[in-house]
Design a protein that fits this description.
- Pfam families: SBP_bac_5.
- InterPro entries: Peptide/Ni-bd (IPR030678), SBP_5 (IPR039424), SBP_5_dom (IPR000914).
- Belongs to the bacterial solute-binding protein 5 family.
- It is found in: Periplasm.
- By secondary structure, the protein is an alpha+beta fold.
- Among the domains are: 132 residues, Alpha-Beta Complex (Dipeptide-binding Protein, domain 1); 221 residues, Dipeptide-binding Protein, Domain 3 (Dipeptide-binding Protein, domain 3), CATH 3.10.105.10.
- The chain is built from 17 helices and 18 strands.
- Strands 11, 12, 13, 14, 15, 16, 17 and 18 form an eight-stranded mixed β-sheet that branches. It has a four-stranded mixed β-sheet with strand order 1-10-9-8, with no helix packed on it. It has a four-stranded antiparallel β-sheet with strand order 4-5-7-6.
- The longest helix has 17 residues.
Length: 528
């Protein structure tokens, strides 16, 4: 069977037919969006927990209307700019950071002015042993102490250098939102989690589990230091089926919705706009059991524990065909997890099935082996199950027998972080990090629960990078690490993909960037 024919088996014709059926039959009965509310249709709410430390970063979609961060990223310059911290400085060795807080920032609901006590409490609660936030395990090991010499100053001392702490783990691209210590002390943790209070312009009005989250403007929002929202309410609705989200955009039942690449022509044909952030995620296939520096997460008996097998599985996949078939060409072939300038020189694996077969034979698998790919749907990432089908077809061409198992992200996340994902592979998505070291630590050091590949050599390289104060030398070391990850075939890197949203004619200016796509408090109203 020719390769083009194989791709047609999982590509647009099936999705187009399903979309046409659902658009015709599955329109929600919800009322058309009212003029003063912004309705955002999402594929999932993830854990639906309402404090920064209680789940994944995917919750930032709605939590970032409530919580704010010490620093932000300027979308035009990609420079780190002040947030709740007005300024900051680091010691030469990168181990001691001092943050000077903005004055007059108020928590919602009359819960007082933000002070250093709130920031210290937020950090300490974020790194507690029961924290489920992705960066918590790394920060738990990194932070030696948090001091508050006065109400406007926070001093963080680290066990290891981090020359990018302000833009990285403490910035808006991560999960360290600032909560009110006084509020938690007054009502208790359970009540505070049920009714979240932050310094952001919105607060929670209500939540219907698995259905709807409604945020409403604070009464005192006119005095807000950062945002001037143009909608009094933001309504998030869970709509797992992409075709239904597209239908809601067309009928005015949703104003913003993440969409798949195949839906772009449909949305444009309806006279609606596409707002797209470039290269915000990386569809990838991760190998289980390759955390070599963690005994519980290493499986030396897996076929892909051999580098030659991992390289073969990369050579076997025609990534450009997948980009053309699934991503409407709105992606580029990836050699890594994330788009960073220092890795632009790293060459991706070319499509070479003959080389793949030779490498399998060299590794002792001339007749292939059996493997399970687990896959799930998320946003962005509606294409992941179809990508799994494509990868399976390519691998079967070189003799690897693939079983695909659909799962949900929370169950896969739990298995991954608990060391129970050592005998299969899975589709996933990488994200850009404001801090290069954050991305390396999250994916490639044993201190992170989300590590998917580590080795003693790689961890030494990352340590040298983290400890290097010279910017030019750091960039050179970072490039070396990218080449090493490529040569070791740490994953099957597929593409660097854009993130498209369909928007209704109610939406005016809305700028999203690679570094930050959760700024729904910045959505403008058309005509304003």
């Amino acid at each position: 069977m020719g390769q083009q024919t194989r791709l047609q088996r999982f590509g647009r014709p099936l999705r187009g037919g399903l979309a046409a059926f659902l658009i015709g039959t599955c329109i929600s009965s919800a009322a058309v969006a009212q003029g003063d509310e912004l309705i955002i249709a999402l594929s999932t709410f993830s854990e639906e927990t309402m404090v920064p430390w209680a789940g994944s970063g995917q919750r930032k979609t709605y939590l970032d209307l409530v919580y704010e961060y010490l620093t932000y990223i300027d979308p035009d310059t990609r420079e780190t700019v002040p947030g709740l911290a007005e300024s900051w400085e680091a010691s030469e060795d990168g181990r001691r950071w001092t943050f000077h807080l903005r004055e007059g920032v108020q928590f919602a609901g009359g819960h007082g002015e933000m002070t250093s006590a709130d920031v210290a409490y937020s950090i300490e609660r974020f790194i507690r042993d029961d924290s489920r936030a992705g960066p918590s395990s790394v920060l738990r090991r990194a932070i030696a102490s948090v001091e508050t010499p006065d109400e406007r100053t926070v001093v963080v001392t680290l066990n290891t250098p981090d020359h990018e702490l302000a833009q990285g783990y403490f910035g808006a691209s991560q999960q360290l939102g600032i909560v009110s210590k006084a509020y938690f002390d007054a009502v208790g943790e359970a009540a505070a989690e049920a009714d979240p209070i932050g310094t952001g312009p919105y607060r929670l009005e209500r939540i219907a589990s698995g259905s709807e989250i409604v945020m409403t403007l604070r009464d005192d929002v006119g005095d807000h230091w950062r945002a001037r929202p143009e909608f009094s309410r933001v309504v998030f609705r869970v709509v797992p089926e992409e075709s239904t989200r597209v239908a809601m955009l067309r009928t005015g039942e949703a104003d913003i919705a993440p969409i798949g690449f195949d839906s772009i022509p449909t949305v444009r044909d309806a006279g609606l706009r596409i707002v797209s952030a470039p290269a915000t995620w990386s569809p990838v296939v991760r190998f289980g059991g390759l955390v070599q520096t963690s005994q519980e997460r290493y499986n030396p008996d897996a076929p892909w524990a051999r580098r030659e097998v991992r390289q073969a599985l990369n050579y076997a996949v025609d990534k450009q065909e997948i980009i053309d078939a699934l991503f409407q060409g709105e992606a580029t072939i990836a050699a890594s997890d994330t788009p960073v300038p220092a890795w632009e020189s790293v060459e991706p694996y070319p499509y070479d099935p003959e080389r793949a077969r030779a490498l399998l034979a060299e590794a002792g698998y001339p007749n292939g082996f059996d493997v399970t790919i687990r896959t799930f749907t998320t946003t962005p990432g509606a294409e992941l199950p179809l990508m799994a089908e494509a990868v399976a077809l390519y691998w079967q061409d070189i003799g690897v027998n693939v079983t695909i198992e659909p799962v949900d992200w929370p169950s896969l996340r739990s298995a991954w972080t608990e060391g129970r994902a050592n005998d299969y592979v899975w589709t996933h998505r990488g994200f850009p990090f404001a801090s290069a070291v954050n991305g390396l630590e999250a994916g490639f050091t044993a201190s992170s629960l989300f590590a998917s590949y580590t080795s003693p050599e790689l961890e030494e390289m990352i340590s040298a990078f983290s400890n290097e104060p010279d910017a030019a030398r750091r960039e050179a070391l970072f490039t070396e690490i990218g080449q090493h990850l490529r040569d070791e075939a740490a994953a099957v890197f597929i593409a660097l993909a854009n993130e498209p949203y369909g928007v209704s004619d109610k939406v005016g200016d809305w700028d999203i960037s690679t570094s930050y796509v959760w700024n729904f408090d910045q959505v403008g109203r058309a005509g304003n």
